[in-house]
Amino acid sequence: MTPSLPASPAARTVPTATYRLQLQPDFPFSAAERAVPYLAGLGVSHLHLSPVLEAVPGSTHGYDVTDHRAVRAELGGEAGLRALAATARAHGLGLVVDLVPNHMAASPTHNHALRAVLREGLESPYARWFDVDWAAGDGRILLPVLPARLPEVRERMRVADGQLHLDDLSFPLRAGTEGLPLPELLDAQWYRLGWWRLARTELNYRRFFTISELIGVRVEDPEVFDATHGTIVELVRDGVIEGLRIDHPDGLADPEGYLERLREATGGRCWTVVEKILTGAEPLPPTWPVAGTTGYDALRHVDGLFVDGAGADEMADLYREFVGRAGDRGGSWEATARRAAYEVVTHDLAAETGVLTRLAERICAADPELRDHAPWALRTAVRELLVRVPVYRYYRTGDESVLTPEAARGAKAAFAVEEEASAVDTVRDMALGRLGDGLEHRAFRARFAQTSSALRAKSVEDTAFYRYTPLLSANEVGGDPGRPGIGPEEFHAYCLRLARDWPATGTVLSTHDTKRSADVRAGIAVLSQCPQVWRELLDEVAGVHAPDPHLAWTAWQTAFGFGTPDAERIGPAVLKSVREAGLHTSWTEPDPAYERAVTDFVAAGPGRIPLRAASEAAFALEPHIRAHMLGATLVQLTMPGVPELYQGTEREYRALVDPDNRRPFTVGEDDDRTALVRAALTVRRLRPEAFAAPDSYAPLTVTGAAAPHCLAFARGGPGAAPEVVTAVTRLPLRLVEAGGWQDTELVLPPGRWVDLLDGEREFAGGAVKPVDLFDARPVALLSRRA
């Protein structure tokens, strides 16, 4: 085993920039180790690794953890991870690791803890690991793993080696049951094997969103926390790991309590960010002991800079005209999201609302003042309040900013009788922690919040984003399709808040979870500057028959953003989009004929026709798309926060939804973006003080007719003069249509400024014309000359 590394000095605990690598059996630690010299040359300070603990064999993502005690053998084991850390350290890099505290693989074959519970039931020391409603399952855990109903597969079951086998599945047996006849043996277990479709309504363990293959873990229990974090904590204390990305904290019963315990366990040595999706102006809870988020809020603000709001409204009108009632009734974003929420809470999350209803029934039964609430009324109140939570979840007891009186009034509209509507007030008081602090009261409060986050994620990210598609670039995690554009003033205000409150938060543009890479989104976003071009393109390809107009709109826009016709990559992404939308087919109720029609359409049209070259007008958009790509990249790399590059995005990178964006990393050819990335990351490493202080961000003044088309800001040390200036071109097509820069001027801070992208160019402090600043490229990165 490679010797332990010394703990990193405190100064290294905050990265200057990270680079995300997707580990998998085809790209293990040794492959990452070979990439270290190249990645160090880019200028990042840390490598960000996807989950490293033992996972389901063959997993290409690692979020299906099976054993927290071991580093994943398929990646090279702990020795391989330590060797990677040593090589990285030799090149001046540290490691950040993705940590998955909320869930494990619900695999009876591979999850050692779950397997023990299935064998020993409540007597197992692992029984406390999982949120299981044993009473709802008649004292057993439902395992919805059978490919068909039990009578249809029973003949394929056999007992051997002390286990129950079905095809490639194996299940442990309760002691003393091995010799029983099969029907009696099945009834004698601590689990009930069921058809996979039963998960929707009958599941009695907490899961990740609606994915029954991932079982929730009770890390709020100190013993469970210690058992599931021991290996990671040891690696932190040994200096192997210097940072942690916390996956899906909203799934936890007590996110803040978990983060406090994690900070205590790691001795505060880790730079820690949380995958927290903030809605609108929602703030990150200020008491959380973290550096900030993983950066989806930054993604929304950067993307919004390069969207023309008025043009986006035109695209929405055109979308409704084109799609008609073929989409989600052709309505607004808000109406689409609300309808999706109702569908998900009543269908996909029926088991979760059932748990909440049963908890509410038990709480009411124990309180003489509440006993008259009927179960149906409590169930309705739970559903109506859940769909009215405007964010992913609440955190504080009594948080009326989320479960408002207005939300309660809206929920009561579902009741015909006012007296029955009082169940809403009762359920709201339960969720806000007003009715008591007993075990079941606390359980209801936590499960309501956990279910709220699952509902938001499933209904918005995984349903509504695929149903309302005027401008697909806005349909990204944390995005707001109803308001995709953001002006310079709003962006500056956001950055000033980050610099003040969360200067070490994460920022991203592309991740393993983005539905489209930043470059694909840039290609689509440019359409907000020219809706008429999109109309003309749709007219040109109208002869390619599509199953329905909503599918046609989505597929052609996907192809336009992707840039090149490629049915093998565009096809699966489009098929996934129609399944997620659930309008004509779905993952659980597929329509084979419709799906064949989708595949045929993509192969005949979007996967074959180079749409961006289909007309002179579309071809002319390429320079404007390029300006968006470079501008977004430079802004993200130099704005407040710690920027992350997703693998391959240091150069032009077009990828669609997973698994397309999770292919093994390879080093590609440099392009003009690579030079920009190296320049920005190098200046961050050389002048970290200019990017880290709370007062290190300063918007720069732009005056003149075209001022809204230039975004510029300076970065500088605490109380010191600015050291670095970023300036980018916004909405260049609209700029050209308006007559160019004309009398516009950007005011640089005093001093002499050298162009880091072209060392031959210098500018003096004071007024400079964007036409001169941007004569070679649509962005500029300037550094003060000493």
What does this structure look like?
41% of the residues lie in helices and 15% in strands. The two termini are 47 Å apart. It is globular. The strands form six sheets. An eight-stranded parallel sheet has the order 16-15-14-5-2-1-18-17. Strands 19, 20, 21, 22, 23, 24 and 25 form a seven-stranded antiparallel sheet that branches. It has a three-stranded antiparallel sheet with strand order 6-13-12, with no helix packed on it. With 786 residues, it is an alpha/beta fold.
Give me some keywords for this one:
alpha/beta, globular, disordered N terminus, eight-stranded parallel beta sheet, 786 residues, seven-stranded antiparallel beta sheet, 41% helix
Output the structural class. Answer: alpha/beta
Shape: globular
Q: Give the uncertain stretches in residue-range form.
A: 1-11
Question: Helical percent range?
Answer: 40-55%
The biggest beta sheet is recorded as:
8 strands, parallel
Find the count of extended strands (DSSP E, 2+ residues): 25
Radius of gyration: 27 Å
Overall pLDDT metric: 94
Architecture blueprint of SSEs:
Elements: E1 18-21, H1 29-42, E2 46-49, E3 53-55, E4 65-71, H2 77-90, E5 94-99, E6 103-105, H3 112-120, E7 141-146, H4 150-153, E8 157-160, E9 163-166, E10 169-172, H5 182-187, E11 191-195, H6 199-202, E12 207-208, E13 211-216, H7 222-237, E14 243-246, H8 255-266, E15 271-274, E16 292-293, H9 296-305, H10 309-323, H11 333-348, H12 350-365, H13 375-386, H14 405-412, H15 418-431, H16 439-467, H17 488-501, E17 506-507, H18 518-525, H19 531-540, H20 549-562, H21 567-581, H22 592-604, H23 616-619, H24 622-638, E18 642-646, H25 672-686, H26 689-692, E19 697-699, E20 702-703, E21 710-716, E22 722-729, H27 732-737, E23 745-755, E24 762-768, H28 770-773, E25 779-784
Parallel strand pairs: 1-2, 1-18, 2-5, 5-14, 7-11, 14-15, 15-16, 17-18
Antiparallel strand pairs: 3-4, 6-13, 8-9, 9-10, 12-13, 19-21, 20-23, 21-22, 22-25, 23-24, 23-25
